[in-house]
What does this fold into?
Amino acid sequence: MDVAALDRSLPPRSAGPALPAWLVAELRSDHAGETGAVMIYRGILAISRDPAVRDFTERHKATEQGHLDLLDALLPPADRSRLLPLWRVAGWLTGALPALFGPRAVFATIDAVESFVDHHHRAQIDRLDAERILPEIRALLEHCRLEEVHHRDEAREAGEGPRYSAALRLWGRIVGAGSAAAVAAAKRI
It folds into this structure.
């Protein structure tokens, strides 16, 4: 399904009943995460001069911007995280710092972030399926999840993921823990 068709299938913000509170919190965390993801790629581009990394980054930044645009259309500004400035800075640093250390560090970072996002979206989709509600939003989340999985797999292949050094595996755990903490905060604030 293309993004434009997906966007057209979503109900207008004012249409229909209000979204469940749990889903608003989840979408707030998704919006914050996509904001951070765009900034991760901007941070990488600010530092890296490696042509392969820059090509990877430009392509995936465009996809993340598309996800952010979809969430902008779905989530009213009043329901978005009030910590967006923090997520922008944290995202930029999460991209820029590994870029200082080279391509493998960049790819390990994207692998870690997208692994977290895959599980995060899967949990949201599972709950929507269990409650049998909002198939349009479920489709949006599944569309985004599959693109994130593609990013993870491409990063893993480019960075030779199964052979990451101990330092990069530790960095990946830190990135995953930071992502989990950011989601918990964004759901509330």
